Every structure is written in structure tokens, then in C-alpha cells.
Automatic annotation (TrEMBL):
UniProt keyword Lipid biosynthesis, yes or no: no
Name under which the protein is recorded: beta-N-acetylhexosaminidase
Domain Glycoside hydrolase family 20 catalytic: 257-603
Enzyme Commission number(s): 3.2.1.52
Amino acid sequence: MTLRYEFTQQAITEQGFQAEICLTNTGERPVKLGCLYFSLARILQPADVTGGELRARDGDLHAIAFDSTLEPGDELRCQLNNPRDRMVKFTDWPYGVYAESPLGELLPMTIQEPPVNWRLSPLAGHSREALQELAVVHTVVPQPQSIALGAQQFTRPVTLGWKEPPAALKVTSADLAAWSEVLAEFTPVVAVSASGWPVSFVQQDMASGSYRLQVTAQGGVIQTADGAGVHAALASLVQWLAGGQVQEVVIEDVPRFGYRGLHLDVVRHFVPVDQVCKVLRLAALYKLNQFHWHLTDDEAWRLEIRAYPALTEQTAVRGRGRTMPPQMGTGDTDHGGFYTQDEVRQVVALANSLGINVMPEIDVPGHARALLRALPELQEPADESVYRSVQHYSDNVLNPALPATWTVLQTILDEVMELFPSPDIHLGSDEVPVGVWQRSPAAIDKAQSLGLADVTALHGWFMRGLEDHLLQRGRRAAGWEEITVGQAVSRRTTVFSWQGVEAGQKAAALGYPVVMTPAQYCYLDLSYNRDQAEPGYYWAGETDLAKAYGYEPLADWSGDGVGTNLVRGLQACVWSELLAESYQLEYMLLPRLLAVAERAWSSADVRDMDDFVRRCLTHRALWQRAGWYYRAEALGW
């Protein structure tokens, strides 16, 4: 008894798509078919389906009921006609497909995949390119302020020995051990403690994060004012030692922005802790110093909270029959995981040793479906509000008017602060849908008692209350651009501008510190181009290497540049709706992460795209040695 599933895209209309699903009984016995399930970001309405009945929809999970018996060889065809949403790419197609009998039993089924399916055949660099070891590396990414080449070359050392840094630099043995791992991962050089090519450290007055690196046959010398400068210099040193021969050099460098970040969503698809650490080592290699860890969302809660074990027990794994249903293509297979507090400490310690701050995100009041599913006491039974989030949930927003909401969140934040020494705790605050709290008796009463104009003002009031909780404990709040709603939070809160550049400019003009992460330039889960076989979303357009590199955060600033001094820096973001496997994540990161890194570190006048590509090409040897997938240059950067 076997079903074969085939999806055929028949047309892309001006505003939508037409497609057909064909189910064939390829077995020798009749098949009683109940429902077909699949994930689809292009949400269907009942009227869009012919030949079946759209019986249920939960987030992106669709259920089409057939209640039919297929005799051997029989076909069942179902037409989809969505006039609202276009379907341009194979990654727009239904995924995570499975079928059940009328009794809810899983039916065996084969899937006819798209002609080019990146989920099975990764468009990866190191599986396709045969690269020779570089004779000598003359390139550093991000581009330093100055590089003065010496006259001599010498054979790359086999081993390297760290000399003890001055105590004032606050560089520990754990820091040097972490950089030894980076060195061994990306180059053939092995770091040892007492012998080998020596690297020494000298404290010298200069700007924070700046450094002077001298490399000769006799050893390396790092001059800097602080630990941040040591980490930056070591990143350049690792890159410089990647060739078979090493050119003598003096590199002098200074960072443009103090905040140089990478955001990683580990909720939509779980990223194992080893992969998180691998990402951290890559980020450090390119002088990123902030890791924004998106730990909670509608689809799961990934952080162990000992006060509320149900958060991970109930929501960390999603699947058929679980508290959290399949989403984002996970289909009939359980998917997920979470980070124990010991694992979090491991990640934070590694990041700290590499000069990276880990900023956790607890996303509220929206994007809280997993939290609400795990702790139903956070729901108000009398609330009859009707809303639908961007991700098509109607039950994902916390109610700020309930005392339990405050008790739970303050307890969670206290545990979070114990785990993360980050000065900033990201509170999300994004994508709160229209309609929330409108028919909540508790919210209506609370808004009236506070003298607010209406219940929508509870959003800003809520964020300010959480910010105050953080401030009282010596921390600051951060949030996506929506956190400025009503200007309720203080000017200590950092605003992350994501839907474009305008929100960041506006927030800075109002006096808020800003991190620029506009999707059209900095969201690395967006597709490289519009080709049907190229994976990724494109709601904010496509982003190739040139587009990411061409972004200048302080250009075209409205209001005569008011607020540019409040731009803390840049951040690359990766969302994982389509990134079920590690190679898919890596493919999206490389080489585009280097473009954001250079824009965040190098001076604004470093704009030579041809030179940047040349430098990136030499770094393929480093990526291959470290086992990183990346987009092959032959596919177009």
C-alpha cells in the first residue's frame, strides 16, 4: 500500500498561482485516504481548493480532506487556485507532506520532488570545487585600515606558541585556547603553549578595538589597548596564516562600529549546540562581536527555564499529536530540541573567549504561541479578541493585563539574566497583530485604569514595564523597531531596524540607539536571485553579494543626518523557516556574511566591489578546510 504524491505548478498569475496535487495508489491494495497535510507559506482559503476540502489550517500547516478510497492505479487530482500570493520558487512549494487515513493512521507515501531540489542536492561549494592550497594569502576580511607588506616570505609555521599577554589586556588562557581552535579549524597551523612560532602581546594606548599586527619570520606581535583589539588582531592573524607561504606584514586597523552582529533564529528549525559554536567561530574570524540568539517564538521554546520546565517539555519538539503541531515543513517527523542551561553556559563561555557578546531574545508579547501553549494559565478564558498574525496564528499574543503574565515573564527574565551576562536583553516586541486585546475584559479594564487611550497602548506600557524590570537589575532592553510604540520605553533601549532603513532613522532622530539590520540588505535567509531553483524567501527582494556589500548605513539619512551618532552598528540576520539542515544555513551565510562584516568594520570609503570579491575568493580555502558549505562562485555571487 503506497501513495505517490506529485505537485505540479501550472501557472503563475499576476497576483497568485495555479497548481495541482496528484495522488496515485501505486500499491496492490485499496488505500483509504483521509487527509493530506503539508506546510505552505502561501496560505490557502477554502475557496482556493477544488477536488478536496480545506478542512483545517494551523499556521502554515494545511489539511485537505478527501475521504476517498483509491483502488490500485487510481489517481486523485486536487486543484489549487490562490489569487493572492505568487509562487515563484521551488521553496515556495508545499513541503513536509504526509497523508493519514480516516482513522488518523499515517499512510506510506513517496514524494515526487521538484526537478531541482536543494533540500536533497545542496548547491554547496566544497562539494563541487576542487581548490588548491593558496601559495600565499594577501587578503584580510574585513578590509583593514592599512596593510604594509614586507619584502620577505617565510614558510608557514607548523606550530604556534602564545606568549603570556599583559594582565591589563584581560586576555585569559581560555581565550587563547578558543582562538587555537579557530586557528586549527581554518588553517593547518597547530597552536601550542610553550613552543613554536611565537605570538606576543603588548598593551599600547589606542582606541578600543584597534590593533597593530606585525608578522615576521621571527614571530607575530600584537599591539592594542584592550581585549577587543586582541580578538580583532587574532582574527587577522588566522587569515594571514592560511597560505603555504606567509608574507611579512604590518597591519594597522580600527573598527568603524562598536556593534557588529549576527542574529540566528534557532526556533523555526533547531540548530544543535555544536553548529551554534561553529557559527560563533566563523563570526569571530570576521570580527563580529555580537551574537543575537533568537531562542523563543511561536513554533518552540528552546531555552531551559528551571522555574517552568513545561516550556521545553511541551514545546521544544513539534510533530503529529504533540502540543506543537508540524510547521515549516517538518511533516510527519518529530523535530526540535532545546538548550540546557549547561549548554547555554558553554556557548556563552566560548563566545566570550572569542570576544563575542551573546544577547538572548525572549520575544514578547507577540510570537508567544509556544509560551501560551506550555502555560495555559497565561490565557484569559473570557478574551474573545479576533486576530491573525503574519505567520497566520490566532493565539500567539500574551495579555499584559493578566497578573500571571508579569509573574511568569519576570521569573523567566531573572533566569535569563543569570545565564547571560549581556548588558542588553532583547525583548522582541515585533509583529503584534491588529485586533489583539480588543475583546479582553482584563485588557479593557487595565487600559481604563491606566488612563490609556485604548487597549493597543498596552503594548508600549508592557514593554516599558519589562524594561524597568531589566534596568532595576543593571541591564538594558533591546527590541525590534516596534518596541518604540508610543515611545513608552526609555532612550536606553536599543532599536533594531528590520523592515527597512526608515524605522532606524526615525528611532535615532527620537534619541534611541539603533542597530541597522534592514531586511533588503542584511537578511541572509533571503534568496540570492529570482531563479526558480534558488532557495530562499524574497518578501524584501533578493540579496546577492553586491547588494549586501553596497549597503551604506549612514547614506541617504533623512533629517539632515540627525541621529547618525546613535547608530551602534550593523547586524546580519538569518531566519530558519527554510533551513532544516546545517548545509542550508551555511549556504545562506557564505559569502554574504563577509559583506555585512566589512560594512560594519571597515571605513565607509572602502567600496571596491571587485577587490572585495577577490578577497572573498581566496577565503574559500579557509571555508573548505573548516568544512563549511558555501555558495560556489560559479553559481554567481
